[in-house]
Amino acid sequence: MSRAFRSVGAQLSLALLIVVAVALGVVYETVVPSLENRLIEARTSQLEEAGANLARRVPGTPVDEQNFVENAAASTNARVLLVSLLAAKPEPLLQVFRDSRGATLSEEIQSDPIAIRGLLRERSESGTVERGGRRYAEAAVFVPSRSAALLLTDSLQDQLSSVHQVQRRLLLAAGAALLIALLLGYGGAWLFARRIRRLERAADRIASGRFDEPVRDTGGGELRRLADAFERMRVRLAQLDDARREFVANASHELRTPLFSLGGFLELLSDEELDEPTRREFLVSMQEQVARLTKLASDLLDLTRLDAGRLTVQREPVDLAALAEELAEEFRPVAQGTEHSLQAVDSEPVFGDADELRVLQIGRILVENALLHTPPGIAVRVRASLRDGRAVLEVEDEGPGIASEQLNQLFERFYRLDGTRASGSGLGLAIARELAELMDGTIEVESRPGQTVFRLALPQEKTANPEPFSREKPISAST
Ligand SMILES: Nc1ncnc2c1ncn2[C@@H]1O[C@H](COP(=O)(O)OP(=O)(O)OP(=O)(O)O)[C@@H](O)[C@H]1O
Ligand SMILES: [Mg+2]
C-alpha cells in the first residue's frame, strides 16, 4: 500500500465513499426495478380490465366492427385489434380482422404471442411483448361468439421513460452524494490528521527535551483527552527536568567546596618549611573534608537509588526502644564533643514493622542534626513510644527552635536554615523522609522555642508489641 493511501485522510474518505456507494447501490437496486414493474403491471391490468369490458360489447355484425375498435381505442388510449387464428401449425399465425389504426395486414402483429396464447387457450392473457425494439403492454380477451380475440396493445414508452428519468436522477444524486462524501471525508480527515500531526510534533518536541511550549488541542473528544495527557506529561517532565538540573547543580556545588579546600591544603602541605604542628593541623582539616566528601557521596548515592526506585527495604520487627539506646550510645562521643546532654528515654520494647538498618540511618540523621544544629549544653532525648497505633521514634532537643514557616522546607533537598551552625549539605532530612515513606512511615517536626521534636512514625508490628504502657525513665548515655 502506498504511503498516501495509508494516511487517515485517504482511508477515511475511502471508507465514507464505500458506505455511500453501497447505500446508494442498495437504494437503486430496490427502487428502480420495482418502480418499473409497478408501472408496467398497472398499465397491463388497465388494459386487461378494459379488454374484459369491451369483449362483452363486440358487435354481432362485421359492419360495425371498425367503428367499435376505433371507439374502443379512443376510450382506452391503446391500439385495439380484433384477431383470430389464421393457422395453428406449423407456426401459429394471426389474422387481423380489425385494427383501430386501420392496418389490417400489419405483419408485426401476426405472430403476437399474447393473442396467440389467448386464442389457443381460449381465455384472457396479458403481459408485455417486444416489437420493433419497443416494449408493449398487452391484453388479449377471447371472444367466444366470434372465435376471435380482442387485443389491446399499448406502447410502454411513457412508463419506461419515467423510469429512465427516475434512474437518471438517482444516478445524478448518487454522483453528487459520492462527491460530497469524498469532499467531506477528505476535509474531515484533513482536519483530524492536522490535529494528529500537531500532537506528533509536540511529542517530538518533548522527546528532544524542549518543555517550554504547552500541548494544546482546540477540538474535543479522544484527541483532546490525548492532548491533555500529553500536556500533563510535559508539565511533569519539565518539573523532573528542573529538579534534575537543580540537583546536579547543587551536588556539584557541594562537591566543589571540600575539593577546593583539599586542593588548598595540598598546596600548603607541599611547602617544605612547614612546621610539624601546622602540618598536623592541616592533615586534621583534610581528614574532615574527606569525611565530608565521603558522607556527601554516600548521601548522593542514596538519593540516586531512591529516585531510581532501586533502594529496597526489608520488613522485620524492629525494637525502637533498643534502637533509641543504641543511637544514644553511638553518639555519646559526638555529644561529648559538642557538649550536649544526650539520653535515651527508657521504655518497654516498641516494635515497628520496618528495616532496622534504615531506621537506624534515619535515627542517625535526626540525632546528628539535634547535636550539630543546636547550641552547646542543650539536652537531646531519643524516645520510643506507641502513638495512634503507630510505632514512633522521637528525637527531641531543647534548642532555640525553628520558625514555623520554615518547617515544611526542612525536608527539601539541599535546604538549610539561614545561619545554620554546622555546615551540612541539607540532604539528611530529605533522605530521612524518603526512607520513611519507603517503609510506609512518616516523619514530622514540631518546634517552638525551647523544644524541637522530629517524630518518625512507622507501622506497628502488632504481634510483637506488648499491651499499651506509659512508663518513662531516663537512663544511660547522659553526658
Ligand atoms: N534539631 C534541629 N534544630 C534546628 N535546626 C535543625 C534541626 N535539624 C535540622 N535543622 C535545620 O534543617 C536543615 C536541614 O537539615 P538536614 O539534615 O537536611 O541537612 P544538614 O544537616 O544541613 O546537612 P546533612 O544532614 O546533609 O549533612 C539544617 O541545615 C538545619 O538548618
Ligand atoms: Mg543533617
Please, could you describe this protein's structure?
The structure is a single chain. The chain is built from eleven helices and 13 strands. The chain has helices spanning 8-55, 65-76, 107-110, 113-121, 157-207, 221-269, 276-308, 320-330, 332-338, 356-372, 428-438, and strands at residues 79-87, 93-99, 125-131, 134-143, 148-155, 316-319, 341-346, 351-354, 379-387, 390-397, 442-448, 451-459, 473-475. The strands form three sheets. It has a six-stranded mixed beta sheet. Strands 2-1-5-4-3 form a five-stranded antiparallel beta sheet, sandwiched between helices. A hairpin with a 4-residue loop joins strand 4 and strand 5 (148-155). The longest helix is centred in the middle third of the chain and has 51 residues, at 157-207. It is rod-shaped.
